[in-house]
Design a protein that fits this description.
The protein is α/β, with parallel strands linked by helices. It has 2 domains: 6-177, Rossmann fold, CATH 3.40.50.1970; 180-363, Dehydroquinate synthase-like, alpha domain. 46% of the residues lie in helices and 18% in strands. The protein is built from 14 helices and 11 strands. The chain has helices at residues 28-31, 49-63, 83-96, 110-122, 136-142, 180-197, 199-207, 209-213, 217-237, 252-262, 270-287, 293-305, 318-327, 355-363; strands at 6-10, 16-21, 39-45, 68-74, 103-108, 128-133, 147-152, 155-162, 167-171, 338-341, 347-350. The strands form 3 sheets. Strands 1-2-9-6-5-3-4 form a 7-stranded mixed sheet, with helices on both faces. Helix 6 crosses helix 9, helix 11 packs antiparallel against helix 12 (293-305) and helix 11 (270-287) packs across helix 14. It is globular, with a radius of gyration of 20 Å. The N and C termini lie far apart (48 Å). Bound molecules: nicotinamide-adenine-dinucleotide (NAD) and glycine. Residues 45, 47-48, 51, 76-78, 81, 108-112, 114, 134-135, 137-138, 141-142, 145, 147, 156-157, 174, 177-178, 182, 185, 269-271 line the site of nicotinamide-adenine-dinucleotide.
């Protein structure tokens, strides 16, 4: 295998393989390796479909000429991760006559992966889903681990299911058409892994910042593989987030509140909100005496080097964000739960975080 190709296995009750490498979308045998039935539905968005859907369809057809293939394309963006679009996918499956052995190919970023994955979890109580992530964020995070969901106006990912994919196939050449802003958003989630479980990876990222921002193929492939290895290890230990899978939500309580307050269609994308969320979570950790302010500042500086936002967007009201956090899935009846930081490579789930400390972190 070359430095551009990697495989990561996710073990456990529903094992699957993550394939990372250039040109994989044209590999019909790989795309159909886990296929069991006669129906395939490619779900994609209006940016990604014109670039890649035909190629995927051609590869599927070449490998399995008898396959009934449908294509469903929605508008792009977080504002489309809705129950309405979920219902649209279900309609297409019904019209296709998709049987229980049908397969959904989720071709796109995390919005498509989460929404199409949720449709796959629900149609006939669960059909196969193959994730074909085309954004860096989807390659390193959302396509792996089986969390699927749609957003509600009241909050992010409020309706969803755990539904692991049958395979994840990340064709790294698709990153060449990814807008630079979206590449940086994916790097925020990559930095997250270093922050919570791997101090050496955080140092590697600092050393490879320029190469990653310049789309260097080998550096990106290594960053994706190392991120997927961490996500695989955590999600196979704790597939349903009863324990330390929650660490993957570092920065996300703040991020989800920011995204919901901004109404999804405007302002930060998910990765940018996570960058600011990690800065705020590190600051909250320092307010609570768990991390030094120097390490919180160092994390902020690293995110800034990757050209990611590190400050709260103007116009957002701390009390309104706090109200959003009370509805976050990580909150419990007893109070707010946060992933707090203890310095490079170390994080912890903390319950009953005082709201006053959260407000202090938001206001400072
Ligand atoms: P996205 O799906 O909106 O993609 C970002 C943008 O890039 C979109 O405009 C998309 O059309 C475009 N795009 C994607 N690939 C492209 C390519 N190769 N070329 C050109 N354009 C391309 O957003 P995202 O950042 O990929 O994912 C964010 C979503 O993922 C959020 O909804 C978030 O909640 C979710 N998420 C889920 C998990 C999980 O475990 N399920 C984890 C992290 C994030
Ligand atoms: N992105 C958080 C998780 O997969 O658990």
């Amino acid at each position: 295998m070359s430095v551009l190709q990697h495989q990561v296995d996710v073990r456990g009750a529903a094992p699957y393989r993550i394939h990372i490498g250039p040109g994989l979308l044209d590999d019909g045998n790989l795309l159909t390796a886990t296929l069991r039935g006669r129906h395939a539905l490619i779900v994609s968005d209006a940016n990604v479909a014109p670039l890649y859907a035909k190629r995927v369809e051609a590869a599927l057809r070449a490998a399995q000429p008898e396959l009934r293939i449908a294509r469903h394309v929605i508008d792009a963006g977080e504002a489309e991760k809705t129950l309405t679009n979920f219902a649209g996918v279900i309609d297409v499956l019904a019209n296709l006559g998709a049987t229980r052995d049908a397969c959904i190919y989720a071709l796109g970023g995390g919005v498509i992966g989460d929404m199409a994955g949720f449709a796959g979890a629900c149609w006939m109580r669960g059909i196969d889903v193959v994730q074909l992530p085309t954004s860096l964020l989807a390659m390193v995070d959302s396509s792996v681990g089986g969390k699927t969901a749609v957003d509600m106006p009241q909050g992010k990912n409020l309706v969803g299911a755990f539904h692991p994919p049958r395979a994840v196939i990340a064709d790294t050449t698709t990153l060449r058409t990814l807008p630079p802003r979206e590449l940086r958003a994916g790097l925020a989630e990559v930095i997250k892994y270093g922050a919570i479980v791997d101090a050496d990876f955080l140092q590697w990222l600092a050393a490879h910042c320029d190469a990653l921002l310049a789309d260097d193929d080998a550096s990106l492939a290594e960053a994706i593989a190392r991120s997927c290895t961490h996500k695989a290890a955590i999600t196979e230990r704790d597939p349903f987030e009863h324990g330390d899978r929650a660490l993957l939500n570092f920065g996300h309580t703040f991020a989800h509140a920011i995204e919901a307050e901004q109404g999804y269609a405007h302002g930060f994308n998910h990765g940018e909100a996570v960058a600011v969320g990690m800065v705020l979570a590190a600051r909250l950790s320092s307010v609570l005496g768990m991390a030094t302010s120097a390490s919180a500042d160092a994390l902020r500086d690293l995110l800034q080097r990757f050209d990611l936002p590190v400050d709260m967007p103007t116009g957002l009201v701390p009390d309104a964000l706090l109200a959003r956090m009370r509805l976050d899935k990580k909150a419990q009846a007893s109070g707010l739960r946060f992933i707090l930081w203890q310095g490079p490579g170390s994080a912890q789930v903390v319950a009953d975080v005082p709201e006053a400390a959260v407000l202090q972190a938001l206001r400072s």
